[in-house]
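U., I forgot to send this yesterday:
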Amino acid sequence: MELQRQTGMPSGEDETWMLAYAAGDAQAFERLYLKHKGGLYRYFVRQLSDMTLAEDLYQETWSRVIKAAQSYQASAKFTTWLYRIAHNLLIDHVRAVKPVDSLSIDEDEPDAQANLVGPQTAEPDSELLRSRQVAWLKECIGLLPQVQKEAFLLNQESGLTAQLISEVAGATLEATKSRIRYAYQSLRDCLGRKTQESIE
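Result:
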């Protein structure tokens, strides 16, 4: 687009929309909002036990996006910029690790998370086991250190790569990779223990 050629910025869809919104295109903001509202809302809900606080931080994130529109520069992916705002709001408001309030395994969520609880089947006994595994997964995520929990959720909820997560959290790439790796290992170990306990 002409705007992108003038600025020399990335040509991603989100960046294009944000630049268009900064230039006065309200529909561009609506497209961004509709695309990212679900993942961003779940990002807060699954890290906070206080639903009111999650809603407040969600709304505040979009408010800051609007306020920062005129100074926005697409030097990084819009998703990274958006979640950095959300991350900073969490840091400002959350002082202790809190349990995940809700977690479900949806058909459209990344395979890696579903793999933690096993494949879906239609058999009643298997469905019961899967329901238990999902509950265990929610509990196990709640036990993760905050930095590992955030890295896991950003990777799963938003599909962010380790590089982008490192930019959001202000951590090195290697530290971020370690957080994701340890989160998955901890979750597998935790789920393994709970499965073993259920059959003893």
